[in-house]
Each structure stands twice: as structure tokens, then as C-alpha cells.
Amino acid sequence: MNKFIKTSGVRKAALSLPMLAMLAYPTKGQSRLQGYITEGLGSNQSIKQQNFLLERNVLALAEAKTMFLPSVSFSATYTKATGGRTIDFPTGDLLNGVYSTLNQLTTTNAFPNLQNQSIQLFPDNFYDAKFRTTLPVINAELLYNKRIKGKQVDLQRAEVLVYKRELVKEIKTAYYQYAKAINAVEIYESSLSLVQEGKRINQVLFDNEKVNRTGVIRSANEVTKINASLMAARKTKESARYCFNFLLNRPLTDSVQVDSITSLPELSELLAGDVAGREELYKLKISHDISTNLTGLAKSYVIPRVGTFIDLGSQAFEWDFNTKSRYYFWGVSLDWDLFAFGKNNYKIKKAVAEQKSISAQTDYIAKQLQTELKVRQNQMQSAIAQYQSARSQLKTAQTYYNDVLKLYREGVAIYIELLDAQNQLINARLDANIALFDIWISHASIERANASFTFQ
């Protein structure tokens, strides 16, 4: 019996250490989590897709800017023709009479008779090669198009940040879920030692005819139950690791290193934040600006489009190239839409309606985001209350178990009382573990709700 008392005292001291750690408040260190966040932001496929879309929009903006610059093109044509329409020119009818008179006066044949001409309209064996340079001088459509492309770049940048913030929240939540699962496995492993010790105690007491067989059977059943719970906890831990690695785009079976988390997050800023920094609201503001520019684009029909061009080239028959074939041709063009049966007015009204829709949506989304933040903050306060209650219950359960165990060894308490104290202690440790990480998960949700996470 002395052997039993000595061994159980050592085991009791060892089992109390994890519970004391749960109640401590050491300085928290989550450098590994920050490293995982950096890794996830760099490897996540969704983020990469959004960055590709951002690159596309940046290139579209660069393309829009080039529309204001001169453009040079080269074109050449060569024609070979026979037949077709002609122009008849009565050269002989007009000049032969005059030529005959001149021949009589000069008593010569210096002025021969001419035939009437039939001139083919299609140029035969003719080429025209030129360089054309064009430059827009006044074009409101190009101006609004450039502004819209610039806003679309800002919109996509905000979209990338939305994806990043959501990914950070998901990574943190998965990390805390995995850490909670690790602690749950440790609690069940420690609890397994606890119930195995209870089984040993009952076996010793039974062998010494201190208790009946019921205590031995019941304690063996508790070992089986804890073993089943331990296996389930290990599977939960494995699943949590898979989910975490998936977010980091890593092999699902890769190991995950977790920092020891036994303290609470800083709460003052989280409970006093607002939603002004949310990228969703910034996106709506940019969308409103785009809609404003679309309205301006629809109204730009009242402004004439003015451009200029110059051609430098050569044209001639029989591939001649000389001073007579070379030419330049300069001009100014003006286009002005004067009447379109109300088409432009409908475009303007449609753009204005879109502006009003975005304004209404902005008010609704702002209230929705504010409501989300308040709900998350309430969840955080509830989780803190649950954690404080779980800590108190854990202290009580530990004291209760120690007292009942002492009484049971002395033969004063019955096994049912010890079993009840034992289950209360296990459940209290699990509840404290769950409550602690529920706070950290709520912390990640509030960071997402008020956009307070700072990217490195």
C-alpha cells in the first residue's frame, strides 16, 4: 500500500504541470505563425491569379496611355488592270482641224492628225507606298478611357488585398485549430495516464480485498473510452494539419511547427476598431469613380474629335521612283456626333443610374461590415468570459480531484466519486483548451473585420 501511495503521488504531481501551464500568462511568441503567413501569401494560387489580373490591368493602363502618342504605319499598294470603265476624250475632234490649218499655213506636215482617246480609269502597273503618321489632338474618349483603366488598376490592387486578408484569417484560424488539436491530444494522453493509474489503484485495492470487482471493470472501461477519444483527437489533429498545409499550397502531410500559446491577445485595439480600412469599401469608392468617368465618357460625344496626319510616300507607274513620284500629304480631321436619335442620352442616364446604385450599395455594405465587426467583438467578449470561467473550473476541478483521490486512497471516498472528479478534471482541461483558442480564432476574425492586420 505504501508503494501505491508513493507512485500515485509522483503521478499526481506530473499531471498537474500541464494544467498549471494552461493557467499561466507567459509572453506569447508566434514567430512561426508569421512565417507561415508570409509563406502562404507567396504561394497561394488564388493570390497568384489575382496578381496576374493586376498585371493585366497595369498593362491595359500602359496601353491606354500610348493612345495619346503618335502612331506610324506603312502601307503599299500595286495595281495591274485591264478593261473596266473609261473616260472618252475627243482629242482628234478638238485639234485636228486646227492642226490642218497650221499645216496649210506653214506648208508642212509638222502637225499630224490625232486620234480620239479612251482613258482607262483603273491605274495599270501603278504603285503607291507611304508612311502615315497620325496624332490625336482632341479626343475626350481617350482621356476618359485612360482614367477608367487607372481606376481599374486601383480596383484590382484592392481586390488582391481582400484576398490576402481573407487568406491571413484562414491561415490563422487553421493554425489555431491545429494548435488546439495538438493540445487536445496531449490532454487525452495525460488523461489516459490518469485513468490507467485509476485502473491500477483499483486493481491493487481489489487484490487487497478493499473494493469489489465493479471498480476494476469500471476503471478498465474508462481506459477504453479515453483511448477512443485519443484516437479521435489524433484524427482531428491530422485533418487540421491537412487543412493548414492546403492553405499554404504545401504537401498535405508536411509537418507543422506550432508555438506555445498560453496567453490572450491584446484586446484594447480590437474592441475599439472600425471598418474604415476595409478594402471592400475602398473598392466601392473606386467603382463609383469608374462610374463617374463612364458618365463623362457618355457625355464626351458633345466634344468634337480632332486629329492630324501626314503621309510621306511615293506613287508612279512602271515602278518609277524620282522627285516627281515622291510626295507628302498632310491634313486635319474632325469628327463630331451631332444626332443619334437619343442613343447618347440613354447612355448618360444608364451611367447615372449605375452611380446611384453604387452609392446605395456602399451604404448597405458599410452597415453590413459594421454589423459583422460588432458581432465578432461580441463573440470575442463571450469567448473571454468562457475562458475565465473555464480557468476557474479547471482550478476547482484540480483541487477537487486531489482531495477525492486522497480520500479514496484512505478508503473514505467511493470509486464513483473519484470517477466523477476525474471526468470533471478531464473536461475542465478540454474546455480551457477550447476556450483559449476560441479567443485567438475570434481575434483573427476581428482582424479581418476591421482590416487591422499589417502586411510586412
Describe this protein's structure.
The protein has 456 residues and is α+β, with helices and mostly antiparallel strands. It folds into two domains: 2-76 and 138-450, Up-down Bundle (Outer membrane efflux proteins (OEP)); 85-122, no CATH class. The chain is built from nine helices and six strands, in the order H-H-H-E-E-H-E-E-H-H-H-E-E-H-H. The protein has helices at 2-23, 31-43, 45-66, 91-106, 140-207, 213-247, 279-299, 343-409, 415-450; strands spanning 71-79, 86-89, 117-120, 126-138, 305-317, 326-335. A four-stranded antiparallel β-sheet has the order 1-4-5-6, with no helix packed on it. It has a two-stranded antiparallel ribbon with strand order 2-3. Strand 5 and strand 6 (326-335) form a beta hairpin. Helix 1 packs antiparallel against helix 5 and helix 5 packs antiparallel against helix 6. It is rod-shaped and about 165 Å long.
Protein topology:
Blueprint: H1 2-23, H2 31-43, H3 45-66, E1 71-79, E2 86-89, H4 91-106, E3 117-120, E4 126-138, H5 140-207, H6 213-247, H7 279-299, E5 305-317, E6 326-335, H8 343-409, H9 415-450
Antiparallel strand pairs: 1-4, 2-3, 4-5, 5-6
Helix pairs in contact: 1-5, 1-8, 2-5, 3-5, 5-6, 5-7, 5-9, 7-8, 8-9
